[in-house]
Amino acid sequence: MDAARRRSPDQDPGWASVERRRALLVTTVFVLVVDLVLWACASATFAALPGAYWLMAALAVVVDARPYVLADRRSSSVILPSICFTFAIALAWGFVPALAVQLVAVTVAGVRMRQPVRRSLHLGVQHAVAIGAAAIVAAAVSLRIGPQPGWDDALLTVAAAAAWILARYGLAALVARVGSHRRRGRARRPGVEVLATAALLLLGPVVLATAQVGLTFVPLVLLALHAVHRMVRSAGESERAARVDALTGLPNRRALQSTVGEGGRERALLLLDIDRFRAVNDALGHRVGDRLLVEVGRRLTDVVPAHDLVVRLGGDEFAVLANRVDGAPEARRIAQHLAEALNRPFALDGLPVDVTASIGIALQDEPDADCATLLREAEVAMYDAKQRGDQVAVYGPDAAHHSPDRLTLLADLRRALREDAPDDGIVLFYQPQIAIATGEVVGVEALLRWQHPERGMVGPEELIRVAEPTPVMRLLTGRVLHDVVAQLAEWRDAGTPLRAAVNVSARDLHAGGIADQVDELLHEYGVPADLLQLEITESALMADPHRVLNTITRLDHMGVAISLDDFGTGYSSLQHLRRLPLAEVKIDRSFVLGMATDRGDAAIVRSVIDLAEALGLRAVAEGVEDERTWRLLAAAGCHAAQGWFHARPMPPDELAGWLARYRPLRPGPTPLALPR
């Protein structure tokens, strides 16, 4: 990334100072010229103006030295207290005298806010059009505010104020729409802005009536203006608090949604997840972890241009909304620049802390893309980067798991889990596990199924592929754990206690909260911990072994058995296998299915069984489909088996009937030999 990208002109103090002086000079000259033209064209009108006009004009200029600015600092979100006086001037003496004062007041406000010339002119045009609309209404109905106004005058004043508001904010909306060259689905809600504007405008005729009683009372209106200022300021602080992260001071998710909702092309959303952040919390404490998050936010802000937005989404997740991005290559360069900035150690209490981040990128190709879609796509890309061991990944719709079909399925699954309706179609089937030596049922494995209202039955493999890279996986795991523990309680109460195994993903183990979740469920339903077993895969183990070790050690101390699933298909180290508190290893079905005919598969199965025996672990074979395989496993000393030879996966009510009919089946005294 070049230097211009890293440091924008807005970040150069010298450049900004020159621009402010230039804006002041241009704006002042322009207003002087316009006011001179107005004076020349209506000199008789100005000469006949009373002292009340000049007093209100002076107050209008003075009060605009402190304009009311709302949270987003756009010109349409600036409230000028001078409108209280200029609206009264327009009602009493017409459009031209009011316009002359308003232009000077806008200039003072623009200089005070350090606005560029274009924004000051935009603000001046808005107020000029608004004053014109109010003056037209007042002239049309011959409105004149006297010392004792009547009810008709009050209603007509409200009509003139309404014309002022509609003209100003209507023009602002029109300019915003034309400038963006497209129609947005969501309009910005004026809210407090319009309410404060209406209060100032309706205060104008009160000032005018007071001036006719005595000019000495007019400055007292400054107290009322101060009250309006406090109201706007309080509303602005509340708005900022709702859009700012309390810990880091960065904009939050709501601010990101608002910014994306304003539209824009050539954008990229970069989602950053701090790697192994929990290890920092565990080793150094949450106070140091919070300081690290603050420092990460500061460093990102330092290297990101002013026209981009740095956001803390929550936890250890940050986001950067990069504008002016021309395609994926430039977005990757920005991500690499952010990654390099974070790779420099952070000094916390004199201790250098190294931090890395996985970054997912979503490009806003469509002008009407919403924030939720961008976040979902960036999150998918970020987990792709984690799974591949890369630091940066770009969301690509051509990948199978990014297809619209899968995204639709994911949205349906998320909706079903959050609604938690009794007929959502999410069910669990249970497949028995049989002790090979005795033929007894030693447990079951819970297998997820989803009866989709349109697609029909969706299997566990597809559900996991869709959900695992996203936060939906946590919702899904929570639902499965709840249903399994509740079912264990039913079986225990019926006098047939069974052990149930549940598969958990890498995302569940990395989150760390699964141990607390399991503990709460076991206590809620009064289920002994030894009736629940969690199955983890080798890929989950290798993604972050130290983080996984902390989680499964807690589960082991609780009494929950841990099984290593799909053993032999990954790349786990035997050292990790020795150190982990495992109860069993499950031999992958790809080896078991071929062991009766393939010498290589048979050798792998025999080696895994011997290794499990040496480490004091149970060996469970998956995919046992025929009697020959079952007898060969018995000859090799395998402890348990599951597969269609014994039983298919069944819903709980069918399993109860199957258990009542089942009679233990033993391999026999002369098992077949393994092929060599």
Automatic annotation (TrEMBL):
CDD domains: EAL, GGDEF. InterPro entries: Biofilm_reg_signaling, EAL_dom, EAL_sf, GGDEF_dom, Nucleotide_cyclase, Rev_trsase/Diguanyl_cyclase. Keywords: Membrane, Transmembrane, Transmembrane helix. Gene3D superfamilies: 3.30.70.270, EAL domain (3.20.20.450). Signal peptide: none annotated. It comes from Paractinoplanes ferrugineus. Residues 265-397 form the GGDEF domain. The chain crosses the membrane at residues 23-49, 78-111, 123-143, 155-176, 197-225. Residues 406-663 form the EAL domain. This is GGDEF-domain containing protein. SUPFAM superfamilies: EAL domain-like, Nucleotide cyclase.
